[in-house]
Design brief:
The complex is a heterodimer of chains A (about 210) and B (about 240). Chain A is built from nine helices and no strands. With about 210 residues, chain A is mostly helical. The radius of gyration of chain A is 20 Å and the shape is elongated. The termini of chain A are far apart. In chain B, α7 links the parallel β7 and β8. The chains are: A mainly alpha (about 210), B alpha/beta (about 240). At the A-B interface, α6 and α7 of A face α2 and α3 of B.
């Protein structure tokens, strides 16, 4: 088992790159949540924006990730080589599932419940915070979960533009035609995706009003 | 208490309701009767300004609803709709106490009020206060809906087919209790239904809708004896 040997002798570097990887995903998903939740909520209030905004996010999602990293490099301020560019690309990828699920979660609230909230004299803000958001939480978290798992995968490509992360081993292994090195990047990335998915799934269930 | 002054609602070129010209006196129990799409629910929703009249005026407590702040207007009116209108993520106690909560009552006062209301609608506080709507039967949910509408002691109650989804026995039981409760508390009630039997059991006065306009308006005796063809057809359908 050359992979195990390589993994164990390089465990320090594996750990360092895994932490870098986690930071890339964490920071980018955090930023995507900070942008995506308000945008998703705004779409439920301004249905006209829905088509253009979801369409744009959809288009971003279809750009091949390596190409997106490439496009960003020459851009002034945003681009260049390194983690910042990678984080911007990762945010772009994470936006669609977060915006879409926030919108779907709120739009999917039973119209009778919305009607009751309004008829009871809730202001728009009270309706959002007391009724719509709590009921949409499971759907919103499912979107965040999808975004996170996609982020772990896409972040492996960030190594191509010098942003570090577990992709470093994968690119090195490809260049060396050495599967053990590729696996030293790929296996921890896969484990990371599974663990994050599981943790977010648990959180989703904890916050689900249907299980209250 | 409530007055429609030539109010009408036009949606996409079609008159959904109106022009309406009738009023409801304080303490009166009025049933708006009609088939689906006859404009009765639209009429009800004009009262708490969930719908704005296209033309004419709707007044509550002597004031044009468009001059009211919609939020304070709605908090002074109890609103009961079909069982699904309960907040599924709140336990019974918070569902019942939500309007007082919005109005900023203290937690103690809300708790006392919730306890009184549950007793009033015949639900044991110990057994039901902490339950969620999906853990209740249809009839129990509807009792919670009535308690919720009564919470801030509004002078007016609007009911939109509240008992429509219940089995006949539970429905009859709730009708009797609800009517007694509304009268005992001196509420002005506007009650929408498509069920003639329900209308005759509950209403002091029946307003029959046909195609957006009022076809009959009178007490239940007059409704029973009316010779108008549409009233007769509707009466015999029940």
């Amino acid at each position: 088992m050359r992979f195990i040997d390589f993994f164990l002798t390089n465990r320090g570097e594996v750990a360092r790159l895994a932490i870098e990887h986690l930071a890339l995903v964490g920071v980018s998903t955090g930023i995507a949540i900070a942008i995506g939740l308000p945008v998703g909520i705004a779409l439920t209030r301004r249905p006209r924006l829905r088509g253009p905004v979801l369409g744009l996010a959809n288009v971003f999602q279809t750009i091949p990730s390596l190409a997106l990293f490439g496009f960003l490099i020459p851009l002034p301020f945003l681009g260049g080589i390194g983690a910042r560019t990678a984080i911007i690309a990762l945010v772009v990828y994470a936006l669609l599932p977060i915006i879409r699920n926030t919108y779907t979660g709120i739009a999917g609230v039973d119209p009778a419940v919305r009607d009751a909230a309004e008829g009871m004299g809730m202001t728009g803000r009270q309706r959002l915070w007391l009724v719509e958001l709590p009921l949409a939480v499971p759907t919103m978290l499912a979107g965040i979960r999808v975004a996170t798992v996609i982020g772990v995968g896409v972040a492996t490509i960030a190594a191509a533009i010098g942003a570090g992360g577990l992709g470093v081993f994968i690119f090195r292994g490809v260049a060396m035609v050495d599967n053990a090195v590729i696996l030293a990047g790929a296996v921890p990335a896969a484990v990371m995706a599974l663990v994050l998915d599981g943790l977010l799934h648990l959180l989703e269930r904890r916050l689900d009003w249907r299980r209250a | 208490m409530i007055a429609f002054r030539d109010a009408s609602v036009v949606l996409g070129g079609r008159t959904v309701a109106g022009p309406l010209r009738f009023s409801v006196a304080p303490g009166e129990f009025v049933v708006l009767l009609g088939r689906s799409g006859s404009g009765k629910t639209t009429t009800l929703r004009l009262i708490n300004a969930l719908i704005k009249p296209t033309a004419g005026v709707v007044e509550v407590a002597g004031r044009d609803t468009s001059a009211w702040d919609p939020v304070s207007l709605r908090r002074s009116i109890g609103y009961v709709i079909q069982e699904i209108g309960l907040f599924p993520h709140f336990p019974v106690s918070r569902n019942v106490g939500i309007v007082p909560e919005l109005a900023g009552w203290t937690a103690d006062r809300i708790a006392r009020r919730v306890s009184d209301l549950l007793e009033l609608v015949g639900l044991s506080e110990a057994e039901f206060a902490h339950r969620y709507p999906h853990e209740l039967s249809g009839g129990q949910r509807q009792r919670v809906g009535v308690a919720r509408a009564l919470a801030a002691d509004p002078p007016v109650l609007l009911c939109d087919e509240p008992f429509g989804a219940l089995d006949p026995l539970t429905r009859a039981e709730l009708q009797v209790e609800f009517e007694a409760l509304a009268r005992q508390l001196g509420k002005t009630v506007v009650f929408v239904t498509h069920d003639v039997g329900e209308a005759l059991r509950l209403g002091d006065r029946i307003v029959l809708f046909d195609n957006g306009s009022v076809r009959f308006d009178g007490d239940r005796m007059a409704f029973r004896t009316s010779v108008d063809a549409y009233v007769r057809a509707f009466r015999d359908s029940g």
